[in-house]
Amino acid sequence: MQEGTLMRKVKSKSWKKQRYFKLQDDCMTIWYQSKRTGKTESAFSISDVETVREGHQSEVLQSLAEEFPPERCFTIVFYGRRGNLDLIAGSAEEAQCWVQGLRQLIEPRSLTSALASCTWIRDWFQKADKNKDGRMNFKEVQRLLKMMNVDMNEDHALRLFQDADKSESGTLEGEEFVLFYKALTQRDEVLSLFQDFSEDGKKLTLLELVDFLRQEQLENEGTEELAMELIDKYEPSETARALHVLSADGFLMYLCAPEGSIFNPRHRALWQDMSQPLCHYFISSSHNTYLIEDQIRGHSSIEGYIRALKRGCRCLEVDCWDGPNGEPVVYHGHTFTSKIPFREVVSTLGKYAFKVGHPSLGSGDICSPRELCAPTTFPGNSRFHTGDGYPRVLTSPSAILQELKHKILLKGKKIGRLEDTLDGPEDEAPDVSDDDNGAEAEEERRRVKVVLGASALIRGILYGSALQKDKETLAQVLSDCVVYCKNVSFRGFQEARSSSRPSEISSFSEAKARKLIRDAGNEFVRHNTWQLTRIYPSGMRTDSSNYSPQEMWNVGCQIVALNFQTAGMEMDLCDGLFSQNGCCGYVLKPPFMRDEETLFNPSDPGSWEGLGPITLTIQVISGQQLPKVSNSKEGAIIDPLVRVEIHGVPADQAHQETKYIENNGFNPRWDETLQFQVNVPELALVRFVVEDYDKTSRNDFVGQFTLAFANIKPGYRHIHLLSKDGTNIPPSSLFVHIRISK
């Protein structure tokens, strides 16, 4: 890694400033300073970096492609919603040195290796060692405790300090600081649990560990083999591993690992049947994907597509309009949002659409067919499919997900029927009916939807130029691209059943969807067993806020479009549902939502089928190293409480919370039990929220974790908290005990 490398920091085509970049000695921090003033401009932690992209992989660097070769350009991408850092090195060699060095530093390590190398301990030491002499006096230790969200009695802190100061030098260094840190982070609640199953209180024999796994963790299959695996994987002592025993340190490492998580590790991988019709899945879907801010003046960026796709989104929107020089552009029509070339959007989809391997959907406004169909519009080998080679079975009852893998499907207007595309044209009047009526038709009129997934679906409503509103023109070449997602107007469930086909799709605003749920819940569920439905946010949500997706999932709506750029409970639910099944963006609906004769109605308890009712009992035991509230005063310590929320059918909506713990964000103990009855667990999501209690104003958000009820592992489990942006905030966690009973 170069030290003090001079590179150009780029914000726009005209804003290119030279800055010195340097990796600090802790190998965890990078700072950069102005070449002209020598003043340190900013710094960031390696832990904040998600990935590094080489070449012209941002709008800014693409605009400079003729001035600077791709070998000298790279982009540092941060977690969450922090803006990217575009850099131009002085040479290709310097660029490669930084790219490869950063990638090595951010490459994730296993929990075992992280703990073994004391990663967190070193990180805290570097932060607290103010004078950088490699030692820590008691004053620096007190500063460390404040940084770690600990409000500890000074006498107790001094006692821990003196116990660790084996050299009696008045400072801690090396192994002494490790001793201090371990005393500080000792988990009494975990040690007590360990000793309950350990005869000598020092180790768990293989049989004792098996007893714990069966009795508390409810691991009833292959338990002895699992116990051996856990010892081999998490026991730090070679001697203990050879004796097939687990020490207290190994026990804690297991509980903090994926096997000790509340999220069933088997459900992280692709675990569901992926051979069902497309309408049998919930599909991760975004609204106006190109926007990364508000709906009126917000910034349009290909980053919106990259972030959504990397988050597992399978339904994208691409609103296309006539641009200069015959090139279509993407933006929110009739607003002041910025514009990006359609060519760049398509190129980005080609790079990122299939990283997760399953189909995607998309939508947007369309410019004139002449421009959209130009040979230069779709660069490279297009994956849009016109139906050639598709098995006939896909047309009835619906497209089979597995068969569509690595394809891009357009949703849009279509001349004639699907059969015409497969069998050849017939003499038939063009069918270019609207998706909806009234204001909703006007909303959909300016959209071309792109759906990506096990295959990729690009939904498109194909219209003439925005300057020719009164005259709709549908190009045959675009019509032929619409295979399994033909837009049709919705005129009632009875007419849809008698006249529509499984290869067609209707769209509803959130308000219309709520009315249908209220007036005809069961009919809506039945409709969604054989045909796709898309829901989009109200046009009044100009701030890019979101509606709750849960009420739409409750009736089986597959494509529930959200503003991915806006953090909050709604996106937590979306991330929670789609974090399973390999994060492929597809979740199989429960059996009673795939049966065309189902009686299920989310608002009618008499119609409920399935596993419920079930009692969910959660003992909230403790928290570990909870983060400080952003923008809090220096030295402030949080007063944390935990709220558990159930999201599901109306009767299951509930929340309960613990008391708050004063001045302890480091290792708060609650030991409180919360209990819920869940009537339809197949549709339920459970959200754990940690807040900083404030008696005079609204509580501040600290962290959260959301998962589907079906993914919960009972027993003693850790919940690894996520930030408001949905990113990890290690090592922050909750320790809970979960019981599920009929």
UniProtKB/TrEMBL annotation:
Biological process GO terms, please? intracellular signal transduction; lipid catabolic process
Cofactors: Ca(2+)
Mind telling me what this protein is named? Answer: Phosphoinositide phospholipase C
PH domain segment(s)? 1-107
User: Per the UniProt entry, what species is this protein from, by scientific name?
Assistant: Indicator maculatus (spotted honeyguide)
Membrane topology, as annotated, equals: Peripheral membrane protein
One example of the protein's molecular function in GO is:
calcium ion binding
EC number(s) per entry: 3.1.4.11
Under catalytic activity, the entry for this protein gives: a 1,2-diacyl-sn-glycero-3-phospho-(1D-myo-inositol-4,5-bisphosphate) + H2O = 1D-myo-inositol 1,4,5-trisphosphate + a 1,2-diacyl-sn-glycerol + H(+); a 1,2-diacyl-sn-glycero-3-phospho-(1D-myo-inositol) + H2O = 1D-myo-inositol 1-phosphate + a 1,2-diacyl-sn-glycerol + H(+)
Question: What are the GO cellular component annotations?
Answer: endoplasmic reticulum; nucleus; plasma membrane
Q: What class of enzyme is it?
A: hydrolase
Xref: PROSITE patterns: C2, EF_HAND_1, EF_HAND_2, PH_DOMAIN, PIPLC_X_DOMAIN, PIPLC_Y_DOMAIN
Subcellular localization is given as: Cytoplasm; Endoplasmic reticulum; Membrane; Nucleus
Q: Where is the EF-hand domain?
A: 116-151, 152-187
Q: Which region ranges are annotated with the description Disordered?
A: 419-444
Keyword annotations for this protein? Calcium, Cytoplasm, Endoplasmic reticulum, Hydrolase, Lipid degradation, Lipid metabolism, Membrane, Metal-binding, Nucleus, Repeat, Transducer
